[in-house]
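Input (structure):
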């Protein structure tokens, strides 16, 4: 079965930038980006990030702000900071060479079981298993039951010729053929081995996880401009969105406890924004500054044309577009 998977991958894989040289640093960056973001979205960001930080040492030497700015738009910014910290650890503890074993990789900040397995197998062709959503689904169907995917992934990688090829074949098969809905079983290279196909349980495996329904909330955002047209922003220093520039907002629950008192004038419009477990309706108001309760030094006037120079979350971009301050 592993032969068939490997042969299928060799023929049908999508050409991806990190699949040419299999440079460990590039594989690492791609795997971290792909953890919470879809492939189509990742591709342009990967190219941009790599031209900004072409080598591990350039990333290790970067400041947190430079890294979050290059990550702007990908979300889950903790990943970017951990990637930088991880690169610094490789520089300091492994003389700048990404280690090749799962054990060593696991000692690097930000690298967990999945990323360690991915780097060891995809970059170094080590017989290490990896499990992500695709592998979980593909193995559940192949073996005909839910259950821990790790021993199954281990068994497959133990039996294969090229771990790099086998592991990627499972992920690629999950992305292209063995999709969550309407899988293309007729095109599957291992359909004759698939217990779920034999037993008619493809559509029920894996059983869906009970999902938390997103909490809905409304947050007023304040667009406060000075005479030169600059926009008042707050540089967030809390643990979640460290270093990101936010628009002042009237809700403390989501970002930090600090905000400023502002008097809303006119409602410019509203837009929806979804983050992991929250559905937010942002209402954008023009406003006058009131009392600034936290350190005034946290606030800066930013020219809308220079917004690309400061790291900011994507709702800020949506708000500026709504206010016709950017495209
Ligand atoms: N998803 C995450 N990493 C991947 C890879 N190397 N190939 C296919 N899909 C992936």
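Output (sequence):
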């Amino acid at each position: 079965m592993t032969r068939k998977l490997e042969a299928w991958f060799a023929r049908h894989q999508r050409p991806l930038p990190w699949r040419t040289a299999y440079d460990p640093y590039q594989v690492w960056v791609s795997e971290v980006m792909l953890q919470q973001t879809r492939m189509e979205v990742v591709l342009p960001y990967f190219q941009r990030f790599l031209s900004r930080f072409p080598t591990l040492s350039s990333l290790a030497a970067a400041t947190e702000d430079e890294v979050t700015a290059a990550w702007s738009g990908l979300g889950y910014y903790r990943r970017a900071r951990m990637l930088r910290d991880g690169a610094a650890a490789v520089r300091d503890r492994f003389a700048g060479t990404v280690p090749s074993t799962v054990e060593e990789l696991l000692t690097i900040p930000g690298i967990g079981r999945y990323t360690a397995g991915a780097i060891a197998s995809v970059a170094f062709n080590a017989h290490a298993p990896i499990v992500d959503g695709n592998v979980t689904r593909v193995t559940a169907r192949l073996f005909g039951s839910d259950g821990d995917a790790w021993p199954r992934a281990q068994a497959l990688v133990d039996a294969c010729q090229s771990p790099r090829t086998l592991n990627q074949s499972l992920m690629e098969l999950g992305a292209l053929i063995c999709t969550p809905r309407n899988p293309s079983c007729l095109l599957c290279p291992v359909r004759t081995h698939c217990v779920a196909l034999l037993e008619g349980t493809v559509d029920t495996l894996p059983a869906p996880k009970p999902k938390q329904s997103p909490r809905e909330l409304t947050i007023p955002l304040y667009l406060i401009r000075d005479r030169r047209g600059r926009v008042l922003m707050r540089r967030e220093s809390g643990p979640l969105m460290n270093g990101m520039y936010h628009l002042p907002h009237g809700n403390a629950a989501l970002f930090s406890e600090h905000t400023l008192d502002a008097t809303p004038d006119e409602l410019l419009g509203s837009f929806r924004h979804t983050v992991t477990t929250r559905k937010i309706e942002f209402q954008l108001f023009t406003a006058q500054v009131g009392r600034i309760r936290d350190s005034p030094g946290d606030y800066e006037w930013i020219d809308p044309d220079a917004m690309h120079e400061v790291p900011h979350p994507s709702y800020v971009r949506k708000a500026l577009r709504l206010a016709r301050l950017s495209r």
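Notes: The two ends are 50 Å apart (CA to CA). Confidence is low (pLDDT under 50) at residues 252-258.
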